[in-house]
Write a structure and sequence with these properties.
With 188 residues, the protein is of the alpha/beta class. 37% of the residues lie in helices and 18% in strands. The structure holds 5-O-phosphono-D-xylulose.
Amino acid sequence: MVECLRHSIGPDPFFGLEALLTLYLITDMHMMVSRPEQWVKPMAAAGANQYTFHLEATTNPGNLIKEIRESGMKVGLAIKPGTTVEELAPWAGQIDMALVMTVEPGFGGQKFMEDMMPKVSWLRSQFPSLDIEVDGGVGPDSIHRCAEAGANMIVSGSAVVSSDDPRSVIALLKNVVIEAIQKRSLDR
Ligand SMILES: O=C(CO)[C@@H](O)[C@H](O)COP(=O)(O)O
């Protein structure tokens, strides 16, 4: 996953992005930007596989979903902590991945917002096969809550890079999520 965050509106390209994307086979662009419409074609041309935009950043989510699909990418839809899951729900049947932010977009190292977990549980109960991602403050202390709530995709920054043993942190996060997925499928 590649994160793009811009604080100002302007025409500057994400310099060097194409070269970066060629290093990865699967790339999900998490576009924490205003006017996400303007980057759909450049990201598709650069080789992105999935384009994740913020519901708060567009006035026409339906049209943007269509544009992303027509550009040959999968669609991710993200919501900030202040946005309700009911606002995302009307689009959930048209997207590949819902991203529930568990910090305010901006920077790594923030505290995990556990009170976002009901959004994840609700989405999982309503959309059993939807990819659901959580992003922000996720690490060994919070991964169980995410996995139990129903997240099957995890973004973890500080917990991994600040560890003396990043490999084992990644393995732990992965195992907890896989076990929760297996448990859910047995319970069905
Ligand atoms: O994009 C964001 C916040 O803007 C998040 O992806 C965080 O950067 C993840 O880092 P940690 O919260 O895990 O440190």
